[in-house]
Design a protein that fits this description.
The protein has 213 residues and is of the alpha+beta class. The protein has two domains: 127 residues, Double Stranded RNA Binding Domain; 61 residues. The chain contains four helices and nine strands. It has a nine-stranded antiparallel sheet with strand order 2-3-4-5-1-6-7-8-9. Strand 4 and strand 5 form a beta hairpin.
């Protein structure tokens, strides 16, 4: 972490992390190392862990699902040992949160997603400074998918116009009782219908628009 100032307190907002039993054991171990006392009790839909240190008493309410312990919410922590244990667990469990670190100098705001820092911003009074921003990596597969999506977005209105044109041609052929033209138009309409149907079930969403209906 890019911290040169001593952390006085930390606020973890919009926390969302799922702990396996091994992650939970690591969390409890870190808490024990900082001299915290712990107590479990049953809660509504899960279990509640009460952690007490010399400077803070904090409750963590875990929901339980499929053998995992799910923690959500906002937590304001004042104890350095508790902050270290909580942040270690957040990263280990690949959790998500917006973290505000209050130091002796500026406030550092970090956005964590899947256990990785997406950005770190330094807030010093009215001044803001981006300390770190995760680079965006675009693969050749991403480019190909986007290209295909753009092709589909352009092709669909053309298909619909062509179908409208062929429907008019079919009406004219029916009036003229032109069997050969009727068969040709029907075959072409079936081709267009199948192509449009393929795009309707195409797995790639079209950027900036809705899926074809």
């Amino acid at each position: 972490m890019l911290l040169t100032e001593k952390i006085r307190e930390a606020e973890y907002c919009d926390v969302n992390m799922e702990l396996k039993r091994a992650d939970l054991e690591q969390f409890l171990g870190k808490l024990a190392q900082c001299g915290a006392s712990m107590k479990w009790r049953d809660g509504q839909g899960g279990v509640i862990l009460t952690v007490a240190t010399r400077v803070q008493r904090q409750e963590f309410c875990f929901a339980q699902k499929a053998g995992r312990f799910i923690l959500t919410g906002t937590f304001h922590l004042h104890d350095s040992g508790l902050i270290h244990a909580f942040q270690f667990t957040l990263i280990r469990a690949k959790g998500c949160a917006v973290i505000k670190h209050f130091t002796e100098g500026p406030i550092l705001i970090s956005k964590i997603k899947n256990g990785e820092a997406q950005s770190i911003m330094e807030l010093n009074g009215p001044r803001k400074k981006v300390v770190y921003e995760k680079p965006i990596h675009v693969t050749s597969e991403d480019v190909l998918k986007a290209f295909k999506s753009a092709e589909i977005a352009e092709r669909i209105p053309v298909l619909r116009l062509e179908m409208d044109y062929e429907l008019v041609s079919l009406q004219d052929a029916l009036k003229a009782q032109d069997g050969e033209e009727i068969n040709r138009v029907k075959a072409r309409l079936e081709e267009l219908r199948r192509e449009l149907l393929m795009y309707e079930v195409f797995p790639q969403k079209i950027p900036g628009g809705k899926q074809p209906k």
